[in-house]
Amino acid sequence: MAVFRAPENPILTPKDVVPSYDGFEVIGVFNAAAVRCRDEVLLLMRVAERPMQTDPNAVVAAFWDPAQSRIVTETFARSDPDNDFSDPRLIVRRNRTYLTSISHLRLARSADGIHFTVDNRPALAPADPCESFGIEDPRITQIGPTYTISYVAVSPLGVTTAMASTRDFVAFERHGVIFGPENKDVVLFPGPIDGRHYALHRPHSPLCHRNDMWIAESPDLLCWGRHRHLMGTREGFWDETRIGAGAPPVRTDAGWLEIYHAADRHNRYCLGAVLLDARTPWKVLARSAEPLFEPQAEYERTGFFGGVVFTCGLLCEHQTLKIYYGAADTTIAYAELPLDDVLTILSS
User: Fold this and answer.
1) Domain edges within the chain
2) pTM higher than 0.70 for the full model?
3) N or C: which end of the chain has fewer CB within 10 A?
4) Percent of the chain beyond pLDDT 70?
């Protein structure tokens, strides 16, 4: 499929964001939720930052300490055999894993959807024991007058999904964890279906090595049950090792369209699509055999974690999917896909 990439890409980079703390540096701005609010496009971005690394023989990590209610740092020697730095995102020790950066959520605003002004301070930052390693990958769903935000919370307790809400993107109410570990990629449907709310989620099974998409329902957005397996990975395909929901589903005449991400055995992340039944969204109607969008541009192929396109937010306007996506876990870029073309591929 022909993908339109904005000539301005990447539209937001680490240099566009002021660090939250003195002595820190922003190393990534990516995986943003997107929403149109009044006359503006708002992005709620994941901002990854870390202490300045001044010693080449050590890595300094930061995390939120619940006992002190503040960010603290810890230094890990590269010469220590107990420290595994093979994944640039992690410091793996025998009894505990740390992140090499800590993330928060920051707002950016734009009149044209391409040129953004970034707030100087976080909109939401780690503030709970379940968030001590950071909060990541938000999704925004408007349900009535309220914008409901699901986001990933990371800590030594595991990877969970929490929820917050706002009506004005000034004041935020936090609702705590809604999906326990290990679970992420939670997106909420925009409004109830026959009186029930629905969410896509991605639990991880270390026993069976499954990273599949599930669907759950709720009467109130807080208590989730009636979990159903929605779809799994496909051996030999572009989505063979893990899959997860991207932005909240879009209602079309053909059903609910979900743009989802997936990785292959080489950890290459692409975007594809699945069509769900409008009244019974746990029924898969069609699924793309090939990725709709794959990392090809230089800023998608190289970065903190290269070979990645990953979306948490899109706008569907004028029969166009306007996709805001993280590129190589480093920057935010913008692309467009014609809605009719995507639905045609799914119907073929």
Assistant:
1) 4-347
2) yes
3) C
4) 100
